[in-house]
Specification:
- 65% of the residues lie in helices and 7% in strands.
- The protein is an alpha/beta fold and 734 residues long.
- A seven-stranded mixed sheet has the order 2-3-4-1-5-6-8, sandwiched between helices. The protein has a two-stranded antiparallel sheet with strand order 7-9.
- α7 (175-191) packs across α8 (200-208) and α7 (175-191) packs antiparallel against α10 (223-243).
- The termini are far apart.
Length: 734
């Protein structure tokens, strides 16, 4: 038998940790239909049942203040699953606020009382049986990160899942609200308003709380009844404003908390109080979030992350590079010359292989970020940076969007843009979603790593750290510019919850690292592969005219005729491994130079070559030659394409007799490249137009395509200006 169970809870309650513990690797990530909110699902077998878990977005309430809350509530109402409500035992009163709303809606709920070990460390003792009796729902004490209590939780879930009837909890909200709610409920039942969708009392509550989604839905279903209900709400609101200077939603929240406190006072909680006692997390925070010491330690931690990433990924990156070189060399020797060989070697292996070669760096970076995230430290980063962000017209909540986008190199701008939904102010939200693409996402990381490996291999860690600081600095300056010009408006206050520090579990770290790394690999095997093949075709066709080919053939004959026939035979002798000397070596070098010239001419004559060459007059200001231009055009679709296109372009420009090497080595020995060009390309890649998917997300989140177009145009012009400045200064200093 299959059971559908929703996992719901506040952010930082351990919901994702429990989801990973219950489902392990048997999970997948997608999006809810029609929205960009992430949807995580997984399965678990227990007591002869297949339990299908859906990890709902973390939320504090079922009132539709954000898209995450709407998605969570819509799924619950449409599917009517059993609900495992994950509750932080060390913050029981606040966490039970969401629980009470589940009861008011009438769902079958199992309470997972998580982090009981943290509660005990804080001197908090919870009588779970007493709490279960008072709330009328099973309560299972658990420690999600270790799996303690998991079997008891699953037993209670299987048992509760058979109860699908609506049993809404009724709480008294004081005389004023209760009378109005009774009047609303009667009208809703008489008119069969939203019949069968929600309980009538709950609809009345949502009208009193001014729930935008329910009010909009009600107006569309029955405008006449909607008008009557709004009239009652307006009357109550006016009365409360006059007598108590408050609003109905505030009164309702107060009475919900009053209900929770009354339950907890019935022998549920007991405390082992210690005067002036600081919890472990508080003691750590006295150091890590100190006004002066905290930021310094934050830089040390981030620098340590980069040191860890590049130190331990160096050998695996070399192995990956050697593997793709071996594969390309093997196919190069097996297939006859022609378009098929060129497609496989230059289009696929050198293109996609160049991207996959950076998988170890991506993997190590994601692992380090998972450690910081699961331990609770990233919330502290947001708290510490709020003071800085306010100077530049942003909000403390913007920090998490920056971090998710690659503020610690390796994120992705798409979820970073979506993370801006937590910002209430539209002005701050716009400024944030327009600047998060400046962060060094996982797609840019291979480009930065390639340029550093080619020209600054002795300072990889230091430079990656510097480039991270540069990305933050430029993003903040641009945000300040936007807030002073096109996006003026006041700032909102910042409130953030600092979860207790936790020791990450190996399973959680493995799942988080694998999920993100696999997304990178899938992108390389699908989007990047398709674009690489397309760009290979654009760099291969049309072919050189026959008369041009004959000219090169004639030049080969001319060069060969200058040498003695014995020298030519020595060069053409198959299977020889000995070092060529004298005239044979001179002949080989001249023929290789001619072959390289022909290969370059073929590439320049292609469609892509013509486009890149046409742009060269302008892009030379930034040090970019025509092959680089081709790669940067592909980067508009996805930044990883820059690597694959450079790999293809320089592979097509090589000759078969050259030894195969890494792309970094190829660029380092190319006369058109130098450290100034490498720095210029890094700067341009960091700041030019977001990838196509990010642009779409910006347009959707901002509600207008003009902001997507603005991001493409403004960012590209800014990036080209900074890259040109970098190249000109770098060239002058060289």
């Amino acid at each position: 038998m299959e059971i559908v169970v929703a996992l719901a809870g506040n952010p930082n309650s351990g919901k994702t940790t429990l989801f990973n513990e219950l489902t392990g690797a048997r999970q997948h990530v997608g999006n809810y239909p029609g929205v960009t909110v992430e949807k995580k699902e997984g399965v678990c077998s227990h007591a002869g049942h297949t339990i299908h878990f859906v990890d709902l977005p973390g939320t504090y309430s079922l009132t539709a203040y954000s898209e995450e809350e709407v998605v969570a509530r819509d799924f619950l109402v449409e599917k009517r699953p059993a609900v495992i409500n994950i509750v932080d035992a060390s913050n029981l009163e606040r966490n039970l606020y969401l629980t009470v709303q589940f009861f008011e809606l009438g769902f079958p709920v199992v309470i997972a009382l998580n982090m009981i070990d943290v509660a005990e460390q804080r001197g908090i003792r919870i009588d779970s049986e007493r709490l279960s009796s008072l709330l009328g729902a099973p309560v299972a004490p658990i420690i999600a990160r270790s799996g303690q209590g998991k079997q008891e939780l699953l037993d209670a879930t299987v048992k509760k899942s058979g109860d699908t009837s609506w049993r809404p909890l009724k709480i008294s909200y004081g005389e004023d609200i209760d009378l109005a709610l009774s009047e609303l409920e009667d009208i809703i039942e008489q008119k069969e308003f939203m019949a069968g969708i929600y309980p009538s009392r709950w609809i009345g509550l949502k009208y009193l709380e001014n729930d935008r989604q329910i009010v909009t839905q009600g107006r569309e279903i029955d405008p006449e009844t909607d008008s009557v209900l709004k009239g009652i709400v307006a009357r109550v609101e006016a009365h409360l404003q006059k007598t108590l200077n408050t609003y109905p939603e505030a009164v309702i929240a107060d009475y919900r908390y009053g209900f929770i406190r009354a339950v907890l006072k019935e022998g549920v909680l007991s405390f082992n109080r210690e005067q002036d006692r600081l919890y472990l997390s508080d003691k750590i925070d006295r150091v890590l979030t100190n006004r002066f010491l905290g930021p310094l330690l934050m830089f040390v931690i981030l620098f340590g992350l980069y040191t860890f990433t590049f130190s331990y990924s160096e050998a695996p990156v070399a192995w990956f590079g050697a593997f793709f070189n071996w594969m390309g060399g093997m196919i190069d020797g097996q297939l006859p010359d022609g378009h098929l060989k060129s497609l496989i070697v230059s289009g696929i292996i050198d293109g996609v292989g160049g991207v996959l070669g950076f998988v170890p760096i991506i993997c190590f970076m994601f692992f380090g970020i998972a450690v910081l995230e699961d331990s609770g430290y990233l919330s502290r980063v947001a708290y510490m940076l709020d003071r800085v962000f306010r100077i530049f017209g942003l909000h403390g909540s913007s920090v998490m969007a920056f971090i998710i986008s690659g503020g610690i190199a390796g994120g992705c701008a798409v979820p970073g843009v979506m993370a801006t939904r937590t910002l209430r102010s539209r002005k701050e939200r716009l400024a944030t979603l327009l600047t998060v693409p400046y962060m060094n996402c996982g797609a840019k990381l291979p480009v930065l790593a390639l340029m550093i490996a080619a020209f600054f291999s002795d300072n990889q860690t230091q430079l990656m750290f510097v480039f991270t600081l540069v990305s933050w600095g430029v993003a903040l300056l641009v945000a300040k510019f936007l807030r002073l010009t096109v996006i003026r408006g006041p700032a909102d206050p910042f409130v953030v919850e600092l979860p207790p520090y936790r020791l990450p579990t190996f399973k959680g770290l493995f799942i988080h690292t694998w999920e993100r790394t696999w997304q990178y690999i899938k992108k390389a095997g699908t989007v990047i592969l398709a674009i690489s093949i397309l760009l290979w075709a654009m760099m291969t066709f049309p072919e050189l005219p026959a008369e041009k080919v004959r000219e090169f053939d004639a030049q080969r004959i001319t060069i060969t005729d200058r040498f003695d026939k014995d020298v030519v035979r020595e060069l053409e002798r198959p299977g020889e491994k000995k070092q060529l000397v004298g005239e044979a070596r001179q002949l080989k070098e001249q023929l290789m130079a001619l072959d390289a010239g022909e290969a370059g001419e073929r590439l320049r004559f292609s469609f892509a070559g013509r486009i890149g060459t046409a742009m060269e007059g302008v892009t030379r200001l930034a040090g970019f030659e025509w092959r680089t231009n081709i790669a940067l055009i592909g980067g508009f679709v996805a930044k990883e394409v820059i690597i694959s296109t450079l790999g293809t372009a320089y592979s097509l420009g090589e000759v078969d007799s050259e030894p195969r090497g890494s792309l970094a080595a190829t660029l380092a020995r190319d006369p058109g490249w130098n450290p100034a060009v490498g720095l210029s390309l890094i700067v341009f890649t960091m700041f030019y137009a977001p990838c196509f998917v990010t642009v779409v997300c910006i347009a959707r989140e901002a509600g207008s395509w003009k902001w997507g177009a603005f991001a493409v145009t403004f960012n590209t012009l800014l990036a080209f200006g900074l890259a040109s400045l970098t190249f000109q200064i770098g060239s002058a200093l060289m």
